[in-house]
C-alpha cells in the first residue's frame, strides 16, 4: 500500500530539484537583467544623446559625439575646421548650431563633455552683437584660453575687465596716426629688404613657368622683422640675413635660405603652440598643459621673456642717459612701442596714475609680436597668390601708383601719401578685396554673459556664439536679400533697419574683383558690401590700422618693382592649413622686374 505520496529515489529528488532551481533563477535574473539593461539604456540614452539648444536648427547628430565626426571630416578634407561652421550656416540659415560631444546636456554643463556652439551668419546682426551688445556678449573664454598660457596678462587673453580696459587705454596711442607715421620708415626699410631679396632671387630664375621662388617663409620672416622693429625698436634681421646669404652665395638656388634667427624661431614656436591648441577639446586645460608639458614652448617663452626684459632695461637706461626724461612728454618722439611706453610711464609717474607692471608689459609686448605677425603674414601670402592669378589687376595697380604717386618710382612713400584713400582708390580696393577673399581670420567668437535672444532664438547664458566673418563677407549677396531683409521683424532694437553696407552681387560674389569696391566715378567705397576681416567693436582687432598701413606699403612696394608672372595651377592651389589664422599651404612667385617686362 502506498500513502499517496511518491517517494522519489534520493538521486532523482536531487535531479528534480536541480532541474527547477536554475529555471526559477534564470527567470528572475532575466527580469532583473532586463530591468538593469533598460535602466542602463535609459541612463546611456540620457547621457549619450547629444543635446542641441532648443529651437535652433542643427545637423543630424551622432550619439556621444554630436557633430565631432562632421567637424573632423571638414577639417581633414578642407584644411580648416571653420569650413564646418560655414557649411552648416549655408544649409541651415542665419542662426544655426553645431553640437560638440554631448552639446548642451547636463553632463556637458557639469563635466564639460561638450557644448552647443551657436553660429550667427548675418553681417548686420554680427555688427550689432560686436558693437552695440557688448554687455551681453564678451570675448569667448575658449579663444582667450588659446593665448592664456603664453601671454596671461596680454589683451588677447584678458576678458573685458578693468585690467583689459587699462591696457587698451595705455597702448591705444600706438595705433594713432602720428605714431603710425613715425613707424612708417621702419616698415618701409624692411619691405625694401624683401624687395631686394626677391630681386636677387628673380635674377637666378630660369625661363620655365615652374622656376619659382618659395616665399612662404620670406613673408613670415618679414612680418616678424617689422613687428620686432616697431615694437622693440630693433629688427630680428631675418630677411637681411637671407639677403646677405643669397648675395654671398652665387650658386645658391633662388629659394635657398639660411637658418632663421633664434628670436624669430622662438616666436614661431610660440605661434605654433597657440595654433596647435585650436582643435583641443578642453580649452580651459590648455594653459596648464602648455606650461607643464611643452618643453619646446617653455624654452621659447623663457628666451623671449629674457630678450624682452633685456630690451626693456636697455631702453629705460638709454631713455634716461639721452636726457629724454626731461623733455616735454607731449613731444612724443617715440617711433617704437617700447619708447612710447617709456614716455607714457613718465607721464603717468608725473600724474600719479597707474602704470603697467613689468609682467604686464612683457605680456603686451609679446601680444604685439604674436598678434601682429602671423595675421599680417598670412594676408600677404594670400595676396601674392591672388596677384599671380590677376595680371590685369597688377597692371592697373602699378599704373595708379605711378600716376597718382609719381614719387614712388624714386623713393618709398610716406605715411600720409600711402594712407590717402582718395588719391589711391584702386590700392584700397585691391587691399579690401584681398582681405575679403583671404579668410585670414575665418571666425570670431563671443560668450553670452546672460540669457539673451538672437534673431528671435533664445540663447542661454554661457553659450559660445561663433561668427564666421570670412564666409559672410564672401557669400552674403543680393541673392539672399529677401531673407536678410525679412529678418527685420526679429532683429534687436539696435539692429533693426540699420544695415550699413550694400550687398554683393550674387553673380560674382565668389570672384576676386577689386572693382566691386569702386563707385561709378572711380572713388573708393568702403561700405560697398559686407567686410569684417578685423571684426568690430571694443574687442575687435587692436592692430587694424597698423595692419592696413603694412599691407598698403607691402602691396605698393612689391607691385611697383615686380610683375608676378602666372605660375602653374598646381603651384598655386587654394589648399590651406588653419591654426589661429588660415594659412595657404603654398606661396610661390615668379617676380619679373617691370624693366624686363617692358623689354619683352
Ligand atoms: C591683416 C592683419 C590682421 C587681421 C586680419 C587681424 C584680425 C583680427 C581679428 C579678427 C581679431 C579678433 C577680434 C574679435 O574677436 O572680435 C583680432 C584681434 C586682435 N588683434 Fe588683429 N588682425 C591683424 C593684425 C593685427 C596686428 C598688426 C596687430 C598688432 C598689434 C593685431 C593685434 C590684435 C590684438 C591685440 C587683438 C585682440 C584684441 C582684443 O582682444 O580686444 N592684429 N585681430
Automatic annotation (TrEMBL):
It comes from the Eukaryota. The keyword Transmembrane helix applies. GO terms for cellular component: membrane. SUPFAM superfamilies: Cytochrome P450. Its cofactor is heme. Keywords: Heme, Iron, Membrane, Metal-binding, Monooxygenase, Oxidoreductase, Transmembrane, Transmembrane helix. Pfam families: p450. InterPro entries: Cyt_P450, Cyt_P450_E_grp-I, Cyt_P450_sf, Cytochrome_P450_monoxygenase. Belongs to the cytochrome P450 family. This is Cytochrome P450. It comes from Favolaschia claudopus.
